[in-house]
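hiii, so i know i said id send this last week but things got crazy w the move. better late than never?? heres the sequnce for the chain we talked about at the cafe, plus the structure i predicted for it. fair warning i was half asleep when i ran it
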Amino acid sequence: MVYSGEVTHGGPADVRDLPDAVIRKASVSPQDNNTYLITCRATGEQLLIDAAEDAERISTLIGEGGGVLRGIVTTHQHWDHHRALAEVAAVTKAPTLAGEEDADALPVQPDVRLRHGDKVAIGELTLEVVHLRGHTPGSITLVLTSSDGSVHAFTGDSLFPGGVGKTTQDTFPSLIADVEQRLFDVYPDETWIYPGHGKDTTLGVERPHLAAWHERGW
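okay and structure toks below
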């Protein structure tokens, strides 16, 4: 099966096979919150991104990966992205990680507070932490560069098909600047974007619309 990134609440995960990793995407809430599981092929160690809701479904997803969960990352502090965090962390005993500026707002105090430029290692995989200020003060994106050269960015609610995440008039300039300078200016057009809700996209699909985003202010 070819990965499409299209999942539905209550439906099966979509699975992307890479030479060194397996990425699983599942929708776990009526708000179409996405949860992602990354499995290192070499070691079986796993990383969960956003324990958004439905701890039972997330536990099943972890089981589908077949390995030990070594970390749970929360992309940002908004309530709909961590409703199952406490339960999943308690059951799995996996360390929790989040952006430093959002850490104190979470129901579980993170074991690791992440800053821009930090790296998260899972087995033989390394994901780069990109701090994107604006949707929340501590929103982060995790970027995995696979051994085949493909790039995979898990953006939370900072970047979607069609624009950046929700901001205020005061915070939009910060988010659009960070998204441009820290994603579009750094990574290739083929970079796959895995957002916190809904369908995926790529930087190449979205790049032509940056000027329009600036003009509309959201």
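btw The longest strand covers residues 21-27. thought thatd interest u
miss u guys!!
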